[in-house]
Amino acid sequence: MASLSQIVTGAVAAGERVTAVDAALIAKLTDMAGDLAVNLLIAALILAVTIIAAKWAGRVVRRAAGRIGGLRHDPTVVSFIAQVVRVGVYVIGFIAVLQRLGVQTTSIIAVLGAASLAVGLALQGTLANVAAGVVLLILRPYRVGDVIEVGGAAGSVQRLDLFVTQISNANNHKIVVPNGKVLGDVIVNFSGQGTRRVEIHFTVGYATNLKQARHVIATTAAAHEKVLADPVPWAGVTGLLDSAVQISLHAWVKSEDWWQTQADLHETVKVAIDAAGIEIPFPHQVEMGFVPTPPGPDPTEPFPQPPEPAPPPKPRAGRTPKLPRLRKA
Fold first, then answer.
1. Which of 92, 159, 245, 257 could covalently link to 226 via disulfide, CB atoms 3.0 to 4.6 Å apart?
2. pTM reported for the whole predicted model
3. d(C-alpha 126, C-alpha 179), whole Å
């Protein structure tokens, strides 16, 4: 039998081995916790630097693009490029954070590649808006500040993002139209040209001297300071209505002066027509006296009564005729 000293020695040795294993485990856990804390701290720093760098890069790109001659007066393209740069910096920073945390980005990319079809089908509307935004940026059918009409809404373009186009109408209503709808619909750009034509229809009486009326309308429009001398304002008969002759005025102005000039011409031409003694027909009602005719006397004879209908004829009595018999063959 083993002596007591050997048993004690074995127990002490076993205790030392257990203690050594626990110490190694604790040291390993401590190292892992320290590495995790360091990685988390570095990942947080990378994320903070990414956010700051994205904003800084956006501002730098905006200033640099604003100095280019072709983009200096086009804030739509400048804003779009700055937004793309910010998104790119965010993507690079998030990949660096994942790598620092020990995530295999190659496997993530493979998983995303496998799921790209499903994501594309689920977000096809959103991706279509992004693609439409890129096409609108390349084609540039309108710019920030232009007055457009698209999708039944009209207003001034405020901004063009990756997904939507934001416009503001005359009542300062914020209208957001998806880029896919903008690209797939008819776009009317009222500010796309440097000049616009004012078209106003006036009516005069049939007894009016039409040459005089046309002269008054055309000369009044030409005297306006905002009306362009070339092309010359034109006035002509464009319709024979039920109770008036229609004379149309065409005058060209700069696009930014269209609204106010149109209102001014309505007023000044009306004043000039009145001053020239030209009649402007308008619907009116004439009051006429009405005296009802007194009712006549009652009839002295009774109304004739319709004759009574004759009774229907009675059927004649007699034997029922016999049907002919069929002869056997």
1. 257
2. 0.54
3. 9
